[in-house]
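Our platform keeps sequence and structure together, in a single record for each protein. Such a record has a labelled line for the sequence and another for the backbone structure tokens. The tokens are whole numbers drawn from a learned vocabulary of local backbone shapes. The remainder of this section carries one protein's record, kept here as part of the documentation:
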Amino acid sequence: MGTTSNMSIPYPESSDYVADGATAMENIATQVDAKTGMILLGSYTGTSVSSLSVDDIFTSTFSYYRIICGTRTLDNDLHLLMRASSSDSSTSYNYGAIGRSSAGTTYTFDGAGITIGFKVIERNIGASDARNSFAIDIYYPANNEYTTITGNSQSYNSGGNYISWTMGGFHGVESIFDGFTLECSGNFSHTTNVYGYSHG
């Protein structure tokens, strides 16, 4: 029997008996399920698109999720909308955010009942640029309760300044969501990954 280097999970080698190998495979399945950490649920790419919609990604299997996105081009602010049954929610986004630029300027935002979703990247006007990214955590989207999010992003504007943006908020309607949409009033090119947090 061998043992994996990172997780110390035993696995069958080619010289093991068939019965021992089957037992080892059962043990692998049990131990992998018991491990905690982030599980990759989906990976998406797009070139010069105005939106990305993902359905059936939030389930009762996980309580918490992480979405990370890097953009190679981004024409404008990027918003995230919660989604259910292939339809975006266009109501009741409540959040606050604060950002600081490399030029020493502070940007703030707060709002209740916003209809265009959570602003996950503050573009702050400027030519399309590749230096933008975000990572957000989403809590309890598949439960019939208030979905909350926290996140961070960074962007680059036409004045040559970087902006670090931190935000948090919640959807103001107790709902079950199974997906999300990233939307830009313009176009963006991106690689986006979605992870579920496994609790063991």
User: Anything to note?
Assistant: The longest helix spans residues 18-34. The CA atoms of residues 62 and 196 lie 6 Å apart. The helical segments are 18-34.
